[in-house]
């Protein structure tokens, strides 16, 4: 955009649409241009500022409106209601005006949507009710506008099948679980794809880059693809109030990871879902496709996981390593149940290669990234800390994974016979 200082009447006439000078000016983006007439520099009152815009002037005007701050004009805000769709992994959202800023979900009204259009209700009884559950600042609209995580119910108040938050809230609301203050740190991996060819960002269309090795935490045009998206997402999450703790480029080129946590209980699921929504919106604006497929490219390439770091109060206290080993024993006995809930297509990722364990075998180890459960060196050394469940896929439902970990390690008790056999098999002395 260029600003032209020009006389009010006479000079405006010289900048007609057919003027050669005018067409030249409007085809370029100049930072500033001052046109002066001899003898008029002392009389600036005869001049006014005109705006000459580039050929994409419509886009510029749209950007101005998108950035418009309405808070000096009205107390009303925009609330973006967000929920999980019928596939269990897709996110949906719609907006409504709220009369004033709010501080708690209970201040917001319930709402509804057409469940027959999201695969969550039949056409003859399509109304699904949205219950607001968690609030975040809206990094796209700014001001007092908010993003609202909702879960979904029938008009009679029953959670619909894709509402996994409801069951998770019950588990995290159990007093025994509350007393253990479960912490989660979730490592969300994702892959960026080129829009037209659905091939990873930075890869030659229909071809392959060099083998893995230089891309993990890499720097440089030939090693890092999509850093601006990762950085924009990082800042947007901080603005929204998400407990994002870091980010890095991943092993496969075009693949990234961010970490959320430590988060307590149900908050972990809320933060992951809203961070995914923000990432979807950013890639939408960037014209890049986001995929959470656990194995987006077959062959000698790393898949995408959602490693879940987990600890309880007793794990973090002195003697906690024995509690961790007991938790690992429980997890081994419910391996199949966990795997079935850890993400669609995970069998393509958990092959025993590319830093994964086999999907059919449960294993654990200290500092071993080829195991189902990894325990850090510091945890072993200090005798307390956390475990990392490396089995969840990148498309897992965080409500399901976090609540299942809490249920298996805090609430569920195996039989003595099963416990003894598992301890022997895993070489655990509990």
Automatic annotation (TrEMBL):
GO terms for cellular component: chloroplast. SMART domains: Gln-synt_C. It catalyses: L-glutamate + NH4(+) + ATP = L-glutamine + ADP + phosphate + H(+). GO terms for biological process: glutamine biosynthetic process. Homooctamer. The lineage of its organism: Eukaryota, Viridiplantae, Streptophyta, Embryophyta, Tracheophyta. Belongs to the glutamine synthetase family. It is found in: Plastid, Chloroplast. GO terms for molecular function: ATP binding; glutamine synthetase activity. Keywords: ATP-binding, Chloroplast, Ligase, Nucleotide-binding, Plastid, Transit peptide. Residues 161-430 form the GS catalytic domain. This is Glutamine synthetase.
């Amino acid at each position: 955009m260029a600003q032209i200082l020009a006389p009010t009447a006479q000079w405006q006439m010289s900048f007609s649409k057919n003027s050669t000078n005018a067409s030249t000016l409007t085809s370029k983006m100049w930072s500033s241009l001052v046109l002066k007439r001899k003898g008029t520099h002392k009389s600036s009152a005869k001049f006014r500022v005109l705006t000459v815009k580039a050929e994409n002037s419509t886009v510029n005007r749209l950007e101005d409106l998108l950035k418009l701050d309405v808070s000096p004009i009205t107390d009303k805000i925009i609330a973006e209601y967000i929920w999980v769709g019928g596939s269990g992994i897709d996110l949906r959202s719609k907006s409504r005006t709220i009369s004033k800023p709010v501080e708690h979900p209970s201040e917001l009204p319930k709402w509804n949507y057409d469940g027959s259009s999201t695969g969550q209700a039949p056409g003859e009884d399509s109304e699904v009710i949205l219950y607001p559950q968690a609030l975040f600042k809206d990094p796209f609209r700014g001001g007092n506008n908010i993003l609202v995580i909702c879960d979904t119910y029938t008009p009679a108040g029953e959670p619909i099948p894709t509402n996994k938050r409801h069951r998770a809230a019950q588990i995290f609301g159990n007093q025994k679980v509350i007393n253990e203050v479960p912490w989660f740190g979730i490592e969300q991996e994702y892959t960026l794809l080129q829009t037209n060819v659905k091939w990873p960002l930075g890869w030659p269309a229909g071809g392959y880059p060099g083998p893995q090795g230089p891309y993990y935490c890499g720097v440089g045009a030939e090693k890092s693809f999509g850093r601006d998206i990762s950085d924009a997402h990082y800042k947007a999450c901080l603005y929204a109030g998400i407990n994002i703790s870091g980010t890095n480029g991943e092993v496969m080129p075009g693949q990234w990871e961010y970490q959320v946590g430590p988060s307590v209980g149900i908050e972990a699921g809320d933060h992951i879902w809203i961070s995914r929504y923000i990432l979807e919106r950013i890639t939408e604006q960037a014209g890049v496709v986001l995929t959470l497929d656990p194995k987006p490219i077959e062959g000698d390439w790393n898949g995408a996981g959602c490693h879940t770091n987990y600890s309880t109060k007793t794990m973090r206290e002195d003697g906690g390593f024995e509690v961790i080993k007991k938790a690992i024993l429980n997890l081994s006995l419910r391996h199949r149940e966990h795997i079935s809930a850890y993400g669609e297509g995970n069998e393509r990722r958990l092959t025993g290669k590319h830093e994964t364990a086999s999907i059919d075998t449960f294993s654990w180890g200290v500092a071993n990234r080829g195991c189902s459960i990894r325990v850090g060196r510091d945890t072993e050394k200090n005798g307390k800390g956390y475990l990392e469940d490396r089995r969840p896929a990148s498309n897992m439902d965080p409500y399901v994974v976090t609540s299942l970990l809490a249920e298996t390690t805090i609430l569920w008790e195996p039989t003595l016979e099963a416990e003894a056999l598992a301890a022997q098999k895993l070489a655990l002395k509990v």
